[in-house]
Amino acid sequence: MTHRVLVLNGPNLGRLGKREPDVYGTLSHADLDRACVEAGAELGLQVEVRQTDDEATYLEWIHAAADGDTAALVLNPAAWTHTSVSVRDAAAELTVPYVEVHLSNPMSREEFRHTSYTAANALGVVAGFGIDSYLLALRGLAARLP
Fold first, then answer.
1. Which residues contact 19 (CB under 8 A, 6 or more apart)?
2. How far apart are CA 82 and CA 74, in angstroms?
3. Which residues are tagged catalytic?
4. SS3 21
5. Is the pLDDT of residue 77 over 80?
């Protein structure tokens, strides 16, 4: 059985490779997408990667995952991690596991990034390893899906 896993990326992640490469790396969002799909296939997962700068769209994706055929999620809410009670509430409603990921380590950055509204309901959090954060999250999920 192949499990469907959604990777949902929040604001500004579409600017990967251009935005603060010293913090977020030089690989593009297309590179991230490709790496996740390839790693997922190796793990027996069907991975779909999405990115939006629109919070309402992000919430719709989470709601659909709660009601649909998605087995698990990898969430990088980006700035919404630290600001959005709406994203937190949508993630808390999920009946499938999710892993929160971050390219950088929020705990080593500005103090406002030290609070995550979504981490408490996550299966786990992987941060600070660049794109490898996503690959580690996918590996962890694959090991825990039936």
1. 12
2. 17
3. 24, 102
4. helix
5. yes
**Placement of tokens 């309901």 in the chain:** 121
The set of residues, in sequence order, having a beta carbon less than 8 Å from that of 9 and lying 6+ positions away, is: 29, 32, 49, 50, 51, 52, 76, 78
Instruction: Note the pLDDT of residue 83.
Output: 79
CB atoms within 10 A of CB 56: 9
Number of Cβ within a 10 Å radius of residue 139: 18
Distance CA 124, CA 100 (A): 6
Least confident of 3-12, 36-45, 104-113, 121-130: 104-113
pLDDT 10s digits, 95-124: 999 999 999 877 656 676 667 879 899 999
Rounded to two decimals, what is the model's pTM? 0.91
Which residue has tokens 């995550």? Answer: 116
